[in-house]
UniProtKB/TrEMBL annotation:
It comes from the Bacteria. Its EC number is 3.4.21.53. Transmembrane segments: none annotated. This is endopeptidase La. The active site is at residues 668, 711. Belongs to the peptidase S16 family. It comes from Antarcticimicrobium luteum. PROSITE patterns: LON_PROTEOLYTIC (PS51786). GO terms for biological process: protein catabolic process; proteolysis.
Length: 820
């Protein structure tokens, strides 16, 4: 537990307050093997209530956004809870696409009871395979061949009879019917011989005319007979088709009757099978064509006739199962996720194949997406990945708004293609979408997307820390034990658990809290398990956790070590002894990925007479961020409201982070900057053995900052490199004392008297420590003591005002164009 006793302002903080470590003896167990496992997370009641509500709500617009930092167990919690809840829900219906025989470009969607879609698919494959055999046998049967032959003979006899009658008639009129390569020709007969052309021309003119008239008349009759031949052939084909329909109808109807019986009571299937029967009877010849092709390729008894459904010709009768629940699947609703939520993977896609240089598609090339698989249950998506995929977010919103899944390609959405494609029936959608992302992403969506708030009405905000108490520490120990068991690690001793809790406090940056970044602590635990194994221990001890912490720091500390080296070699100038006017050691934190470390920076200030301008050099060269600029402006407000209130503010000052070549932001150095300014005004030197951090308001109150542990440790390392003298230390805001969880080596140095950590509440308290002189307060006469820090600073500002007035009275233009 933490000791919240007050710290005397300006006095060093006791060593026991710098690292409020957990006492292993207070935990009440020897190793985590003794602890009962714990289900779920600790300290996330608010988030779990939202997840529970989202799971139970049936309204389509109560989708859930889970927010919080990675490593807090948000994804695992969502998966675990929704997985348990989904198992209690009814199984969703199957969905399949089938051919629309009237409009093939608009496939029909079939809604079927769970497990029926795959059975219908198998049944239609069997139907085609069976009919391929039955129809082939029918076409080869004696009855069919006899009936077919009778029809052909009947129409053949009709044609031959007409030609025979015409031939007899022509013969009776002495006209011969002759077949030539050019067709059927008529020629006159005289004396039993065909009249040739040269002989015909020698005949009398009257006889020639009689022959021409007779042949012309017979030619007309022949033409009529020949013109009637196609009609007879059409009639023959119709009779054949009628024969096929009559004989095939019973075969098809008999087989489909079995299929209907297998799916009795399913109106959608019955209606579909009726359209199949009608199309099969109308296109039964294709079975014969396919069989003949296979016989030519494979011989008289092709094996492939037993798997005719694999032939592309018969795909029109197949069933494209989009979603089905197999018999051996677990009962309940689905819980799906999609790690790559592209448009196609989310809403499904229509594939194309190349055939003879052209692209083609059909309803069997429709592929399901994550929305299809999750329909009736839950779909969990990573929000950042979803938003990074083109058109995926608009498509998801459209599906949620319409409560249906419509498959469209990227090309169609962007109007990049104009080729005819499929337009499958939309599938009704009933599912809960869960997005997982960070708080910034949630804020952006709420602000920039008006549809987001209407579709995602629930948020589960995961906490980053939990209050530190005996109860929470006991729960935390059980979580560590559960993690060790789950990952197959050694049990953790009480000392090891206490050491892990110390790291949890440090991650929380608050001695009164435990971090819930269980991912980072789990990584530390697994590494400590490795070192325990290396040391042949049966349990993870505090020393193993210490080793894991040190090694993790060593792996990430290359940049920090190079900076320390530059300070040691005076490449970067940092003084840790002596005193300088207008110069102070500010402290900052550098973050590289998940690794942070503190480093000191020299801050200098220069002052002179001017027109009330405080120049922030970092801002002038565009290296200072807005928060840093705000802090500098607060300094100007403090100076103008604290000193020389009865004369014009006649200061020109400049501030800079020396040897800073990158961006500077945040206001945690504003107190250090103010100390440097007041030192420059008063002429009193600042003890360079101190590092300073803290922000300041216009009333001179020191305010809390972040990264206090890293800042203290960064300055300690600098002092360590240059030699600890016992006079060095760090000044921090008093509000940050409860955030301290320093490394053990820093605590040991404080306990040995070679380093100090001092808490301050006001600028005056800090001035007293840094200058070794009373800061001074205004007396009853409204004047600071003349030898005090504030008195000297105010006297300097009054001097600036007097000089400025004299300068103006002499007829000179005031500095910066200001009026006198």
């Amino acid at each position: 537990m933490t000791d919240h006793a007050q710290t005397d302002p300006g006095q060093p903080i006791a060593a026991n307050r710098l690292r409020p470590a957990c006492d292993p003896a207070s935990l009440g167990f020897a190793t985590t093997a003794e602890l009962e496992p714990i289900e779920g997370l600790i300290g996330q009641d608010r988030a779990m209530e939202a997840i529970r509500l989202a799971a139970g709500m049936r309204a389509s617009d109560f989708n859930l956004f889970v927010q919080g930092p990675p490593g807090t167990g948000r994804r695992a919690s969502v998966d675990a809870f929704l997985g348990r809840h989904a198992a209690t829900l009814p199984e969703p219906d199957d969905w399949a696409y089938v051919n629309n025989f009237d409009a093939p470009h608009r496939p029909r969607a079939l809604r079927l009871p769970p497990g029926v879609a795959s059975k219908l698919k198998d049944e239609m494959e069997d139907v085609v395979d069976d009919l391929a055999i039955d129809i082939a046998a029918l076409f080869e049967s004696d009855d069919y061949q006899a009936a077919n032959r009778a029809i052909n003979e009947e129409f053949g006899e009709q044609q031959e009879h007409a030609m025979s009658e015409f031939a007899e008639k022509a013969k009776s009129e002495n006209v011969a019917l002759m077949r030539t390569p050019m067709g059927i020709m008529l020629a006159a007969i005289k004396d039993g011989e065909v009249v040739k052309t040269d002989h015909f021309e020698t005949l009398p003119e009257d006889e020639q005319k009689q022959i021409e008239e007779k042949i012309g008349r017979l030619q007309a009759e022949l033409s009529e007979i020949l013109r009637n031949a196609p009609k007879l052939d059409r009639d023959r084909r119709r009779r054949i088709e009628a024969l096929n329909a009559e004989m095939l109808g019973e075969v098809v109807a008999s087989r489909l009757r079995e299929a209907r019986d297998a799916f009795a009571g399913l109106d959608a299937v019955q209606a579909y099978l009726a359209t199949v029967e009608e199309d099969l009877i109308g296109n039964a010849e294709m079975f014969l064509v396919v069989m003949q092709q296979q016989q030519q390729a494979d011989g008289p008894f092709p094996e492939s006739v037993h798997k005719a459904h694999s032939n592309p010709v018969f795909q029109r009768y197949m069933v494209n199962v989009m979603v089905t629940r197999e018999e051996d699947d677990a009962h309940g609703a689905p819980l799906e996720s999609e790690d790559l939520p592209t448009l196609d993977r989310l809403t499904g896609r229509i594939e194309h194949a190349q055939q003879m240089g052209a692209l083609f598609t059909n309803f069997m090339m429709i592929k399901p997406g994550a929305l299809h698989r999750a329909n009736g249950g839950y779909l969990v998506l990573d929000a950042r990945r979803l938003l990074s995929e083109p058109m995926a977010w608009p498509a998801l919103k459209q599906c949620l708004q319409s409560e249906s899944i419509t498959i469209t390609s990227m090309g169609e959405r962007l109007s990049l293609v104009s080729t005819t494609s499929l337009e499958p029936d939309p599938i009704p959608m009933n599912l809960r979408v869960v997005l997982i992302g960070d708080r910034m992403l949630y804020a952006l969506l709420v602000t920039l997307d008006p549809d987001f708030g209407e579709l995602f009405k629930l948020q589960a905000d995961f906490e980053e820390s939990i209050e530190r108490s005996d109860e929470s520490q006991a729960l935390f120990a059980r979580v560590i034990g559960m993690r060790a068991t789950k990952d197959g690690l050694h049990p953790v001793s009480a000392a090891g658990v206490a050491r892990l809790m110390d790291e949890a406090v440090r991650l929380a940056e608050d001695a009164s809290k435990l971090s819930l970044h269980l991912g980072a602590l789990g990584d530390l635990l697994r590494e400590a398990d490795y070192y325990a194994g290396q040391n042949r221990r049966d349990q993870i001890e505090a020393a193993d956790v210490d080793m894991a912490v040190r090694q993790a720091d060593r792996r990430a500390a290359r940049i920090k070590d190079r900076m320390r080296e530059m300070v040691r070699r005076k490449t970067i100038l940092i003084d840790t002894g002596g005193a300088r006017v207008g110069q102070v050691n500010g402290l900052s934190v550098i973050g590289l990925g998940g690794y942070r470390f503190g480093r000191p920076s020299r801050i200098t200030a220069r002052t002179r007479m001017g027109g009330g301008e405080l120049i922030d050099i970092e801002r002038e060269v565009e290296l200072g961020g807005p928060l840093h600029s705000k802090g500098v402006l607060i300094l100007s407000g403090y100076l103008s409201a604290t000193y020389a209130l009865d004369v014009p503010y006649s200061l020109q000052a400049s501030l800079v982070f020396e040897q800073s070549y990158g961006g500077v932001d945040g206001d945690s150095a504003s107190a250090a900057e103010l100390f440097a300014l007041i030192s420059s005004l008063s002429g009193l030197p600042i003890d360079q053995g101190f590092g300073v951090t803290g922000s300041v308001n216009q009333n001179g109150e020191i305010q809390a900052i972040g990264g206090v542990n890293e800042k203290i440790e960064g300055f300690f390392e600098t002092c360590l490199d240059q030699g600890l003298t016992g006079a060095q230390g760090v000044m921090i805001p008093a509000a940050n004392v409860d955030h301290l969880m320093l490394r053990q080596d820093v605590v040991d140095a404080v306990r040995d008297g070679t380093f100090r950590v001092i808490a301050i509440r006001t600028i005056d308290e800090g001035l007293a420590v840094l200058t070794g002189r009373d800061p001074g307060t205004r007396g009853a006469d409204g004047v600071y003591p003349p030898d005090s820090v504030n008195g000297l600073a105010e006297a300097r500002l009054r001097g600036f005002a007097d000089q400025r007035l004299k300068f103006a009275q002499a007829g000179n233009k005031p500095p910066n164009g200001q009026g006198g």
